[in-house]
Write a structure and sequence with these properties.
Layout (H helix, E strand, L loop, with lengths): L12 H21 L2 E2 L5 E3 H8 L4 H6 L1 E4 L5 E4 L4 H10 L9 E10 L11 E10 L4 H17 L5 E7 L6 H13 L7 H9 L10 H6 L12 H12 L6 E3 L11 E9 L6 E8 L3 H4 L7 E7 H11 L9 E5 L2 H16 L4 E3 L6 H10 L4 E5 L1 H6 L1 E6 L5 E5 L4 H10 L3
The chain binds adenosine monophosphate.
């Protein structure tokens, strides 16, 4: 037997209903907030991710699915969506007129991580990205949008964490200060952080290893080192939150190098522990780094597996059964019933049947399991009479349904019942 690859998961019909609901909700919310869908390839040149995400990040160091194509060029399955979208914005010159570009994107991402509950090698994200808006109001809109999407999707206990990482004017001095602080804590740091302490000291703030958390407890904070422009921006983001409460979290740095100023994360306190369902931030330097114009950008990503998992643990999902199940009692009625089901479907009715005759009892059981609203019984008697027996599955009431009606008229009668 050939099995799926480790960390790659099937989404089977029962579970797919959750995905459909979340995706439909995402599209509704995005439309209301004025974000348009973009779709970009799942494979890009490796260089794109190495240059955007950063060499000293976990993703680029050890989590990319990279391979050489037949000409020896190194390609990578996208580990995140931003880089590909930025590439498309540059390649198609979408930002040239300076107007705000508001995009969303849904699809699979690939990271070579150790699979565990809620963490896979192929997983899915909803991404939102805005280009050409430097104003703090858009950071605030994105945070409000993140919170709104998660709560309309049905998630409760969402908590937004917020921080500012400064900009090229103030971050280098902060980085030096932090690196100097970490030099005095080397004996407490995990092997990864010992290495990161010089190359990428901010990442140490984010490490989940207990000794590292202890080591950085009184580390210098980015929020104390912001330049006046970054401080003004950060204050304005907070002031524009409306009624939404956010937690200022000085240790929030997030895993990618390209962030500037605002970073945020949505965590849920449900299920006891803290879970990051999504996060993002501002990345004003990225478009230029990738060879494009010097334009500001900001975005976020939500992990859909994690959202599905949390929602499924919070409660059940109602799915709607067919409006009609046609029960076929013998071979003579089968072809007629099959035609009828197809034409009722074309007339807009959600109709179902078995593809072979069976006892009425077993077909009623199947219709009940599917949560069919009504059953139409068709056997030799019904064909002779020219009318099927329509039965309501809730009340048990029955009535005759003439078989010579048009499909539209029949669909209408079935919906009304006429008992
Ligand atoms: P990131 O791009 O790392 O900020 O991740 C954004 C969101 O994607 C996270 O909050 C998770 O919900 C989700 N995510 C990231 N990596 C994985 C993974 N390996 N498996 C499942 N979900 C993931």
């Amino acid at each position: 037997m050939i099995r799926a690859i480790r960390g790659f998961k099937d989404i089977l019909p029962g579970e797919a209903a959750w995905w459909q609901r979340i995706e439909a909700e995402a599209r509704r919310v995005m439309d209301r907030f004025g974000y348009q869908e973009a779709r970009v390839p799942v494979v890009e040149r490796t260089e794109l991710f190495a240059r955007s995400i950063g060499q000293d990040t976990d993703i680029v160091e050890k989590e990319m699915f990279s391979f050489a194509d037949r000409h020896g060029e190194s390609l990578t399955l996208r580990p995140e969506a931003t880089a590909g979208l930025v590439r498309a914005v540059i390649e198609h010159n979408l930002a040239a007129d300076g107007r705000p570009l508001k995009f969303f994107l849904m699809g699979p991402m690939f990271r070579y991580e150790r699979p565990q509950k809620g963490r896979q090698r192929q997983f899915h994200q909803l991404n939102v990205e805005v280009f050409n808006v430097a104003e703090p109001l858009i950071d605030a809109e994105l945070i409000v949008l993140l919170d709104h999407f998660l709560s309309t999707a049905g998630l409760s206990g969402v908590e937004i964490h917020l921080n500012s990482l400064g900009c090229p004017a103030c971050r280098p001095a902060y980085r030096e200060k932090l690196a100097a602080f970490l030099r005095g804590k080397m004996d407490l740091l995990c092997p990864d952080c010992t290495r990161r302490a010089e190359a990428n000291p901010l990442r140490v703030l984010d490490c989940k290893v207990p000794t590292c958390i202890e080591a950085v407890a009184d580390a210098p904070r980015t929020l104390d080192a912001l330049c006046p422009a970054c401080q003004t921006h950060f204050d304005a983001v907070q002031a524009a939150m409306g009624g939404l409460e956010v937690v200022v979290d000085p240790n929030l740095v997030r895993g990618l190098d390209y962030y500037t100023r605002t970073v945020f994360e949505a965590q849920t306190t449900d299920l006891g522990g803290q879970n990051a369902v999504g996060g993002g931030g501002r990345y004003d330097a990225l478009v230029k780094t990738l060879g494009g114009p010097d334009i500001p950008a900001v975005g976020w990503a939500v992990g859909l597996e994690r959202l599905v998992m949390l929602l499924a643990e919070q409660g059940g999902l109602e799915t709607e059964g067919p409006e009609l199940f046609v029960a076929v009692l013998d071979e003579t009625a089968l072809a007629r019933a099959f035609d009828l089901v197809q034409s009722l479907r074309r007339a807009g009715l959600k109709a179902e049947m078995d593809y072979a005759p069976a006892s009425l009892k077993s077909q009623l059981r199947r219709a009940g399991k599917m949560q069919a609203q009504r059953v139409l019984i068709m056997g030799p008697d019904e064909l002779n009479r020219g009318a099927g027996t329509l039965k309501d599955m809730v009340s048990g009431a029955q009535s005759d349904l003439p078989l010579n009606l048009t499909a539209e008229a029949m669909a209408e009668r079935i919906r009304q019942g006429g008992f």
